[in-house]
Design brief:
Helix 4 crosses helix 5 (about 70-80). The chain is about 40% helix and about 15% strand. By secondary structure, the chain is of the alpha+beta class. It is globular. This is Alpha-D-ribose 1-methylphosphonate 5-triphosphate synthase subunit PhnI.
Amino acid sequence: MYVAVKGGERAIKNAHAWLAEERRGDPSVADLSVAQIREQLALAVDRVMAEGSLYDPDLAALAIKQARGDLIEAIFLIRAYRTTLPRLGASRPVDTGVMACDRRISATFKDVPGGQVLGPTFDYTHRLLDFMLAAEGEVMPAPQAEPCDAPMPRITGFLDRDGLIGQEAPSDDPPPDLTREPLEFPADRALRLQALTRGDEGFVLGMAYSTQRGYGRNHPFVGELRVGMVAVEMEIPELGFAVEIGEVVLTECETVNQFTGSKTEPPQFTRGYGLAFGHSERKAISMALVDRALRWEELGEDNVGAPAQDAEFVLAHADNIQASGFLEHIKLPHYVDFQSELELVRRIRAEAAATSAVRAVAE
């Protein structure tokens, strides 16, 4: 017979102390500073900010350190901290059209105003381990270019001039706020995009990949991918105009999809859209693909039953904090539940054995 195991506060405190010791590692190795994480693990910091819905590189770096590099745990810490912050107001929509771009590329047109700006990217590396990074001493990188401040009109604007791409209907309605209200269905596009921005990068990537493999008929071009700094402005009622309160780094992606038309829309190109904090190209592109797959109904397309076309399936399972919480709760005590199931299985086995015995006698 299994019996309940009792634990106490002292055991939990000891577990916390052991966790802190494991986090620190070998004391003879220099402690990793928050500044080092912020500056040298910037892509991990950016992911934590994006999925944690809080733009603060220092706090994201601190969360990564506290979580021993577990990014989902770090995202959990950031979201928990975020709930303690007061809401002072709402900023104006950022204008990514005037972004100071570190990187801006298009897969649809070779020659575009402002040019192709490769920026810092892994795209052309050989994916070979650089053992120089393990050597003693610092290898100084080559001087980097300044962000491009030249005007860079949107690539989709060229298609828009000829009426070849679907129009995005503007709306003055305030968008729902997923950080304050629970997700509800049916979800409009603004809410879907919020959920995808906060969604687990791996899950959103998997959904995007499925559409490329035929589960959703989604074979896009990257119309434009931008990474850079944009200003955040806020309306000040006492002043009567907006003032700049800060800057954030964003990654924005617009995909272009061929659309053969429907009963309500003519043949044209349509868009998918993705936006995330920091340098988060994989996330932004994945978002754009899934966003386009979820637009099947408004565009009058057929639903082929692909997972990426099912808004409830995608959005209800994209959040890694909800997913990990529900998954990891099964390692907590379930003694009473298990005892009841154990007794049930024993009773069923006993009844099955008795039935078999009766049959054997009858035969």
